[in-house]
Amino acid sequence: MKLPAKMTLQQIAHVIGGRVEGPAELLKDLTLSSVAVSPLQATEDDLALVFDEKLVSQLGDCKAKALVVTPKAKTERPRIVVERPMLAVQKMLSAVAPKRHCPPPGVHPSAVVDATAQLGEGVAIGPLVVIGPGCKIGAKTVIHPGTIIGAKVEIGENCSIGAGCLIADVIKIGNRVILQQGAVLGSDGFGYTTERESNLERRLRGDRDLKDESNPHLKIPHIGTVIIEDDVEIGSCTTIDRSTMGATTIGRGSKIDNLVMIAHNCRIGEEVLIIGTTAVGGSCTIEDRAIVSGGVIILDHIRIGKDAILEGMAGVIRNVPAGEVQVGIPAVERREFIEQLVRLKKLKSTYADVKKLNERVDKLEALLSEKTLEKV
To answer: Are 267 and 303 in contact, with CB atoms under 8 Å apart?
Structure first.
């Protein structure tokens, strides 16, 4: 990755918030023009970021002129020492990131904007965008090509609505919200009922007398909305359903990855992280700062407490206390899950031990039986 210009180690340290260390004779007149993608692929003109402990042990194979390291790394090379590696990466990439293409302020000739829509100052509407009646778009918001926005949608200021997003009627989006490409807000929730008791209801109450007859699913209207609060980011192809009544809510500062499904009536707290391919059932509550890892499945009506962590592929069928780390299917506290794995690993030897004990018991019973017969 090329830097905008040659920079001294001190200049880079100022940008990323680190301190320069190393032999004075090597630091003098040291300038850098690029950052290596990988420390092991670095050239002599590169700065290398070495945060992984496994890579620290391979520094001898790194040709970089200078390093960015944590305080634990032991090296005499010119270096920038940072306390929070990923924060340093964030600052560096923010400083050198090329400006992405955005539609210029104004409405592209191919866009269709209803006459009753209100556009704030500096709003940019890209090609083939459709904006329905009664919408309000805040100042400096950018709507990329191919996005379709229904009626009476409110979008705040300085938002970025990615290409191909679909936003249904009566949705409210706060300020500085980012929707990545193809995000969908406001689909109807998945809710149906039947006129007569269904076979599913019979099975759930333990009745095996099932009826082989038609009993059509009747759609339950979802007349609620979706509210996205300030500073939320929603990933590509993620879907957030509108509520049956009231609102499905995504709290301030929460970040939702790609391919996540959030069902109707969910309430997501502030600064929550939800990672890709997670599915959150209807009417769930995920409280502030909880982290839901990739591929997690959460049953309907579940509450995830503040600062809880659900590790990847967990299947959550009961409430999760605040601050607890859970994993597994069904999800349990992490320590309990590890204990279960240990017991499973011992199962083969335990079975062998039990088999031997049974054989010994059989022999003892036979001996006792013989002695009893001798006495008789």
So the answer is: no
